[in-house]
Amino acid sequence: MTVRPMTQQEKLYCYTQSGQLRAQTGNIGYLRADMDLGGKGFYSTWNGFDQARNTPAFRQSLSKTVSYLRAGARPDAFLRDRDALASYCLRHPEARIGDTDSFGFRVQDGEFAHMMRLCPERGEYNLFVYSYVSALLDSHLEKAQRGIRFINSSYQDLFTLPDGGRILIRWNTGEQAEEVCRYIDPYHVQIGSSGIHIYHICEFAEKMERAGACVYPADRLAFRSRPQKEAEGPAV
Known about the structure:
Order of helices and strands: EHEEHHEEEHEEEEEEHEE
Helix content: 10-25%
Largest sheet: 6 strands, antiparallel
Strand content: 25-35%
Shape: elongated
Radius of gyration: 20 Å
């Protein structure tokens, strides 16, 4: 068993995914736990996604992982109580997830990857464990590093966004919206976090053009694939 801070890309996967992404990454389900107001308890519930993969081998792996991280006075027994959890998080500032009070760690146990999101705050759920078939998760992570292509309806590349990046959609009415984007495969993208939609990249371009909307990268992480005049912008 190994424990390490998650990479920036992996931190996207310690939250509930869409059904499409759960299937592609082999997400079996997640365990949620809190340590009570006194910080010494451990009250957990399990929420399953993929019953076929909820095998005895998986249940043994999850049970062993949680038990190991709760037992003894070792520095890495960060599930022992909330003080131990807070201390472990503070020793790993690189594990912090964005500007939140949560920290992400990947626990690898054989064929299973347990993606742990820790929150040392009193009154919050202190632990979420999203469990995956490691081979499927890692395969998807590798492919997602290619980024999400945005094109126009003529299949001209406009820009590429990293998995989890955001786009800004501006309509000709002056209204605008910012949406998170997730990599599905080289030709499909998931748009939105609340009202989730999955599009073929050309289908999305055509929809935006029909609506008279322009699409821009909402941050500076996007890589523009072809030079454009400033007046044009990276529009779809």
